[in-house]
UniProtKB/TrEMBL annotation:
Organism listed in the record: Polyporus arcularius HHB13444
Family per similarity comment: Belongs to the SLC35F solute transporter family.
InterPro entries linked to this entry: EmrE-like, SLC35_F1/F2/F6
Bilayer disposition of the protein: Multi-pass membrane protein
Residues that span the membrane, as ranges: 20-40, 60-79, 139-157, 163-182, 194-213, 233-257, 269-293, 305-326, 333-353, 359-377
PANTHER family xref list: SOLUTE CARRIER FAMILY 35 MEMBER F5, SOLUTE CARRIER FAMILY 35, MEMBER F5
Record carries keyword NAD: no
Entry GO MF terms: transmembrane transporter activity
Name of the protein in its database record: EamA domain-containing protein
Pfam families: SLC35F
Organism phylogeny: Eukaryota, Fungi, Dikarya, Basidiomycota, Agaricomycotina
SUPFAM superfamilies named among the record's database cross-references: Multidrug resistance efflux transporter EmrE (SSF103481)
One annotated Gene Ontology cellular component of this protein: fungal-type vacuole membrane
Annotated localization: Membrane
Length: 408
């Protein structure tokens, strides 16, 4: 009995530690994204990045280059494979001692996965399947689906900024919290409680307050040369922003459902495959856009635009890798709502730069922080309950007074 209690305590402690690490990684992503915005913003117009200030409105090319940069994550995998092959050749193809595979090693994942399937090919138990490490083939298949959803989510958000205001795009893209909660419930990775609904709603209200306040600020005169930044087709832009929020919710939920735990997958190999599939499969879209005149292929002409493009690529390369790990250690809803923390962090950055915010902006930022803290505490409790009883994935039903059943 004492051993069982100790085991439960260890499981609970590990779950709490992983959750804390996930929150810390999420905060790193928020800092990276906010820093990127400050670096790439023009001082006279903080609502538009240098790429747009210089008239370089190429949403497809920017998204394509950012995603293609993920292929660099294949280098460690290639080097590791080459090193092992040369090591085996040096030893004459033999082995000495006992080899202990690491969970992050794709070779170990393939060996363990294939062995388990060979030993029990007809078990079909879902829990056993979800505990096996993903093989390189399974990792590639997951990366192919993720690449499509990720590209659409980011491309549609970039396109929306060409047709609608930054405030509208920001507000509608923050609807991803509602989509994530609904889709997560459908796939049984999220429980629908009053606390979660309230946290998502209040976070959305905070985003609205900050965005509307920013849009009411006096804008500088429109430049005589370059592209106009006034919304040309706001309904089209709003539709693209909403579509981005939907696909964003789809891809974070997909990863949580398919991977469950980051120990089951080599994340470097996963993102490397994402970059490779993006390079191989998405270029025809760019060719079509070029031939139809929707987006002509043009390289940036100014050093400022080149610098902003490289910064965005570097931030995307590091932040999205960290972000996915943070999501796997927490939940899709936590990281989705957590990204709204870029707003209060930006308000704090403006304060230190001598640009104090209005009371409405400060109030909206405080609402965002409060909703994230409330959601974080709720999800931490749910995570610990799931860790103690992994067979009961619908832990939210324990709290009937809070549960909002979709089936009834």
């Amino acid at each position: 009995m004492a051993a069982k209690s100790q085991s439960r305590a260890q499981i609970q402690m590990k779950s709490r530690r992983d959750y804390a690490i996930g929150i810390a990684l999420l905060l790193c992503v928020v800092i990276l994204w906010t820093s990127s915005n400050f670096v790439t913003q023009d001082e006279t117009n903080p609502s538009h990045k240098d790429l747009y200030e210089d008239g370089y409105e190429k949403p497809f090319l920017v998204t394509y280059l950012n995603t293609s940069a993920f292929v660099l994550y294949l280098l460690p995998f290639i080097i590791r494979r080459a090193t092992k092959r040369s090591h085996r050749n040096a030893e004459g193809g033999g082995h000495s001692g006992v080899y202990e595979p690491l969970m992050t090693d794709v070779d170990a994942a393939e060996t363990l996965g294939n062995a388990a399937r060979t030993e029990d090919p007809g078990s079909g138990a879902e829990d056993d399947k979800l505990s096996l490490p993903l093989t390189p083939r399974e990792t590639a298949e997951l990366a192919a689906v993720f690449c499509l959803l990720w590209f659409i989510a980011n491309y549609t958000l970039s396109v929306s900024l060409e047709y609608t205001s930054v405030a509208s795009a920001t507000i509608l893209s923050s609807m991803s919290g509602f989509f994530t909660l609904g889709i997560g419930r459908m796939f049984r990775v999220e429980s629908l409680t009053l606390m979660k609904i309230g946290a998502v709603f209040t976070s959305f209200v905070g985003v609205v307050l900050v965005s509307l306040s920013d849009s009411s600020q006096p804008q500088p005169p429109e430049p005589t040369t370059g592209t106009s930044y006034l919304p040309t087709m706001p309904l089209v832009g709003d539709a693209f922003a909403l579509l981005s929020a939907l696909f964003y919710a789809l891809y974070v939920t997909l990863l949580k459902v398919r991977i469950r735990s980051e120990s089951r997958i080599d994340m470097q190999l996963f993102f490397g495959f994402v970059g490779l599939f993006n390079i191989l499969t998405c270029w025809p879209i760019g060719l079509f856009l070029h031939l139809t005149g929707v987006e002509r292929f043009e390289l940036p002409q100014t050093s400022k635009a080149v610098g902003a493009l490289l910064i965005n690529m570097a931030i995307t390369l590091s932040s999205d890798y960290i972000y996915v790990i943070a999501m796997l250690k927490t939940t899709p809803l936590v990281v989705t709502v957590g990204l709204s923390l870029t707003m209060p962090l930006a308000v704090l950055g403006d304060f230190f730069l001598g640009r104090p915010a209005k009371a409405q902006v400060v109030f909206g930022a405080l609402i965002v922080i409060s909703s994230f803290l409330a959601l974080g505490l709720e999800e931490e409790r749910k995570t610990e309950e799931s860790a103690l009883s992994p067979g009961d994935q619908e832990a939210g039903r324990v709290h009937v007074e809070e549960e909002v059943s979709l089936s009834d």
